Amino acid sequence: MQKTTKSKILFTRAKKSIPGGVNSPVRAFNAVGGIPRFLNKAKGAYLYDIDGNKYIDTICSWGPAIVGHSHSKVLKSVKKAAEDGLTFGTPTVGEVELAELIKNQIPSIEMLRLTSSGTEATMSAIRLARGVTKKDKIIKFEGCYHGHVDSLLVKAGSGLLTLGNPTSSGIPKQFAKQTIVLEYNNTEDIKKTFSKYGNSIAAAIIEPFAGNMNLIKPKKGFLETLRKECNKHNSLLIFDEVMTGFRVGPKCAQGLLKVKPDITTLGKVIGGGMPMGAFGGKKEIMQHVSPLGTVYQAGTLSGNPIAVAAGLSTLKLILEKSFFITLSEITTEFTEGFKKAAEDNGFDDFSTDCVGGMFGLYFSKTRPQSFVDVSNCNQDNFKKFFHLMLENGVYLAPSSYEAGFLSIQHKGKPLKKAIKAAHNSFKKLKKLI
Ligand code: PMP
């Protein structure tokens, strides 16, 4: 058994000062039970906790650590930037370079604004869409998460095409009523909704590969229909690529899926492990953002020089020629290894999927296509498997509703060890159920 004494003591202490003992809910292990590990070091593909345990990381800080933790080149540029000044509150060279680099990679982005988080990016994108179209309603998809934005913390109403209800207290019902929640991968719902509400829909926001209900890929024709209906009704299409941006490929999800959004939101990888987000799109849309236009948006630490330095050096590393080929090979070997480990131990109700450096593990015979499908996966088996893997030194996301992430540093030993741990864990799981 791993030692967890120090984490246990610190968790008790943390809960006295921080709600739930954590600064972001999923870290609390509520979905899997047990004691969250308090970490004090991350290097390459590995995490280290305060009790002296070492884990293979399959979360990568929920996406950003794509080149591996504490990469020497990223650290070098961060140190240099820190020595030059932590924050200026003025324009800088680095933020222009980062904006140009992102624009060069993503043809749908002609101009962009940096923020300090993904939430700020999506919140600003929604305001921009409403400002540009002069319409109020938003479409979102069940199971997609876009940060803790009032009008996006909404679940479906009681019937198809009814307006939404808040999923958090503190959100006025009237806000939620401006959001329509549809089923992911349901093309018919999109058509029906636009024919009923098209005149008042400012935008549809979607994760082009959903990563907040495990990993779900869009069915052929789904995003294309959304694009077509948005065009038909003068509504904007927002791709929330906070998670998928520079995580699934060098041109993000839109590059792989060949559907062009009007606005893209980014975060995670573009900050290289520092707080960062961005939203961007066509010039004619982005020039509505203040100080050019009337849609107000600002941030004391937006474009922070340390975050920009980390982001720039991370992007330079991942845009090297074979980076995504290697990363995809690593992720495919990982998921195929897990699938085989399950099969070898008699689990024929386990499936996997991946794209770029992002993966899904499902305790179900087939890959889920919607939030309901994910909810129908065997949660009990996941919980047990999670803890068996943790004991075997592999840190999976502590919820079956999360996608997983690997880095380029998982190649070789960490990858092989993680697959071996999966074999051991499935073997033990078989005896437990
Ligand atoms: N959009 C997506 C798709 C996300 O996955 C997240 C965070 N997981 C956000 C927005 C919010 O980003 P942040 O946590 O940086 O506010």
The share of residues in helices is 25-40%
Task: Give the class from helix and strand content and strand pairing.
Answer: alpha/beta
Total number of helices: 14
Distinct ligands:
4'-deoxy-4'-aminopyridoxal-5'-phosphate
Strand arrangement within the widest β-sheet reads: 4-12-11-10-9-5-8
What's the total count of β strands?
Answer: 16
| pLDDT < 50 runs, ≥5 residues | none
The geometry reads as: globular
Intertermini distance = 20 Å
In angstroms, what is the radius of gyration?
21 Å
Task: Give the percentage of residues in beta strands.
Answer: 15-25%
Order of helices and strands: HEEEHHEHEEEHEHEHEHEEHHHEEHHEEH
Major β-sheet profile: 7 strands, mixed
The pLDDT mean sits at: 97
